[in-house]
């Protein structure tokens, strides 16, 4: 029989399960038998395929052709060295790319979705991948459906199934629906499908299919996405690399022609030109950037921020505005009841609403659920009003789940006299308007005067308490589809004030934001007075900006909000739709905006923001899915730490690219002027070896540098700021020119002894000049002489290995012969060292001038 028509008893029998779910032992056995609840991923690239991809570059094949030509023309040494260089280059590229892939895979695993499941009769959280057929799963608004489910219970359930059916409007689901035989996918209203999103209500469902056996699994091959994400910076650097490639090819062609005119053998001219082109074209620049980004993502994860989209890494450091929720992000989200107000009436009816209008569940000795609702139950237990068994024994005849538009939640219970009681809790300013009576001496008295309750609400809010109001009514029948009718005509029965203290680290993080030129903005559904009190305590208010409410926002058109948005620090009593307008207003001012969110309705604002930040603890699956970054600790300070890490990553990419470009520039200028002057300074093998030894390791070491002092004491980059300014391009050219000048100087000094000594001096000097330049590039702002040696272990390691590889050529006689170099005299070593120290001085002078101009 079709699963959507099977009776519940038969359903449990068919899947060997029960209403309380499986035992842990049975679930483990089924997981081992059936495998994880995962869709088949696109074919992963093997190490061999990564290695093979290193040979896709056109210039590599030109180099291989050059090696073959060398061998054919009787130059086996040159051919062998070129072959070794090509092989080593491929190996290093494979290591870099595989490390980046591994880092991204690890981060993907960290952000895997979780599911609430009944195991051993209790509610537990497990990775969705561990679900098995027969598990009983709990769903609520904001959850992704973790497998194909047959619904067992549902309340006002709506699921957005566009990923599966293309239907953009959420579909109403009903566990009791009588679905026709042969019903199409979209009409099976008592089923929920893997990969769809719960937008409203709650439900319980039995897992009937997992992984590739689900409806989504059947079309998984069509959905497989193996496209690698490319960041804007990578695209920008790709264009730059292509432009420089054509420029270098032009210079190489000139050198080839000039060599031919000088009667240099065609084979040697060809090899020199090709070697220079291969060495100087910055084809590895984007690869280095990718590795640096991946390493940065790993460091961010260590600090509690999981990056879901690669472009977010480079955008984070440029953040101008951080719009943050209050509860749980700026505060601890550990609610405790501080005050109960009933206008002198006995609180029995209030306690009844607190108990039943509450979605938190009894766990192993503690309550599990929303911190606010958990605090209400803990209060009842402390007062001896209810026990965990009372919580387990609750039964509902109907419910209207909370949503941020109504700011209310409602539960219906059955009374012994066949009547029903509607229990409502929510925002005081909303609930007061739904009440038409109150309790007076234990009796229901008609009134619309709640001025004393409003005053009590204000008094609690001034103390930074979060206040909820409670009401009820008794009715003969109730229709939960009629929201207004169900939640009106209520009897007011009291207020509860709870404290959610600010995080100790939040005030420091806000102060750090201000030093960094980042504007913190609080957005909350709480009362304006409560929000303002917390904002003042944290330092968000008090700078001349003000607090407004959602009603104030409604009264502003988009132009007025645009004009005033930079004057507003706190938005209170707002809905998720307001967040979209706030993001848009800031973006129209050219600002990069980070926005936090945890609810299903926050997803559009998270997508619209430059950096959408989801909450790892309290956030819904939908909000996390829409975000660029997920906080594992829901902490505002973690956002600030991620911004700092983003700035560090951008700085390090900037250093690495400057180093690579200046090195390539030095090689090109050296060879160009030497050719014009009629000198043979370096041969093809020398150029290729220098490129191999001095490019990748130092560049990667610069990419792993710690954050510079004062990284959070400067304003963020502009949204349209170029990667390199004109002055920075000039600095790259200056370093390249001096590298060429010092290399030619070394060559002329060496030639006073012999041509071989000249080539040796040029070979060693050019390589070590680039390493000394890398040392100077370790900071774009501070002098090298302020370096804290122990904090730069990767830089020392990278430079050390590169220098050692260069010296190996001198130490091994066979390599000395192959490279046609000699061991320098002590005087020549001192000359090389002197030129390298001059190179270091050049980089220091550049930084001194930059500090004077305050340009970096």
Summarize the structure.
With 856 residues, the protein is an alpha/beta fold.
Helix tally?
33
- The radius of gyration computed from the alpha-carbon positions, rounded to a whole number of angstroms, is 34 Å
Summarize model confidence as the mean pLDDT: 85
Shape: elongated
Strand-pairing-aware structural class: alpha/beta
Largest sheet: 8 strands, mixed
β-strand percent reads 15-25%
Low-confidence regions:
222-227
Placed side by side, the strands forming the largest sheet appear as 8-25-24-23-9-20-22-21
- Kindly state the number of beta strands: 25
Q: Helical proportion?
A: 40-55%
C-alpha end-to-end distance:
71 Å
Explain what this protein looks like in three dimensions.
With 856 residues, this protein is of the alpha/beta class. It has 33 helices and 25 strands. The strands form four sheets. Strands 8-25-24-23-9-20-22-21 form an eight-stranded mixed sheet, with helices on both faces. Strands 10, 13, 14, 15, 16, 17, 18 and 19 form an eight-stranded mixed sheet that branches. Strands 1, 2, 3, 4, 5, 6 and 7 form a seven-stranded antiparallel sheet that branches. Strand 23, helix 24 (603-608) and strand 24 form a beta-alpha-beta unit. Helix 10 (266-280) packs antiparallel against helix 26, helix 11 packs antiparallel against helix 26 (636-677) and helix 17 packs parallel to helix 20 (528-538). It starts with 7 loop residues before the first helix and ends with a helix. Residues 222-227 have low confidence and may be disordered.
